[in-house]
Amino acid sequence: MLKAVVSLFFLTFFCNASYSQTEEHYSWYENFMQVYPIGEDMNLRYMSSNSKYETILFDANPSMKVGFYNNFIKGLMNKAKLHSMAQYVTIAPQIRMYAERSQPVKMPSYRILLGTQHLFRLKVPATDMARFVGFSLESGHYSNGQSGCAFSTAVNDETHACDSVYSLINANTDLSAMLNRKNGNFSTNLTELIVNYRTCKLDSQFRAIRVYSISLGYLLYHDRIFGLIDLGGFSDNDIKIFGRHRLSGKYEFVKSFSFGKKNGISGFV
Q1: Over the stretch 186-207, which tens digit does the pLDDT of each residue have?
Q2: How far is it between the farthest Cα atoms of the chain?
Q3: Within 139-194, where are the H helices?
Q4: Segments making up each domain of the chain, as ranges
Q5: Residue 162, CB half-sphere, CA atoms under 13 Å: how many?
Q6: pTM recorded for the entire structure
Q7: Taking the CA of residue 49 as centre, how many other CA atoms within 13 Å lie in the half-sphere pointing to its CB?
C-alpha cells in the first residue's frame, strides 16, 4: 500500500514538473501566487480539551507555501482551460497556548511537506456556474522537535530505559496521565491524499460569490520520508498507540458579500 502511494506521489509530481516546462511562461509573481483551493488553510481557533491534565487556551496553525509552479489564477479565469495545477512546499507549524505556567518549550510541532494540487473544470451548460473536481497529494515530515521519552519525563527517547516504559502499558493504562507533556518526542512521516468536488456560483465578472465544497481525505503515517529515506520516522511503540491511518471528510459553504465599491473596484470577503 505504501509503495503504491509513494509511487503515485512521485509519478504525479515529476510528470507535472515536465508538463509545466511546456506551459506558457508566466511572470515570477504569478508562479508564486498562493492560490491553493484544496486542503487546510491557516487558522486561529479555540479548542476544548478532553484531558483533565491541561487546558488549551487557543490553537494557531500558520502556513507558508513556497511554489515551484502555479497556474491556478490564469487557469481559473480562463473558461476554456480545463486543468489547473501547482507544485509547492508547505511549512506549517502548530502553536498552542495552555492555561498554566510557561515552559521553555511547550510541545510545539511542525510539518514540512512536498505537495502538488490539481483542479479539473467540468463542462456545464449554465454560464453562471462552474464545477470542479480536484485533488491534492502531499508527503513529508511531522514532528515536535523534542528529545524526551513520550511517556516519561525522566529518560530520553530512543533509549532502553524509554523502551522499558512501554512494557508497562496495557489496556487499563491511563495514557493521558503518563504522557510527557514537557518534552516528549513525537515524530513521523506522512502522505496525504485529498479529493475535492466543488460547485461555484459566478457573478457577471466570473467571480465566485457562492461555493459548495466536499472533500474526502486519506492520511498515512509511515516510517521512511517519502517512503524511501530512513529519516525521522516513528517508533514501532508509538505507532501502535497512535495508529497509521486517518480518514477525513469536510463540507464547506462560502458566501461572498460586497463590502464597498468605488471607482469601479469592488471588494469581497
Answers
A1: 889 999 999 999 998 877 776 7
A2: 71
A3: 160-166, 175-178
A4: 2-145+186-268
A5: 20
A6: 0.78
A7: 14
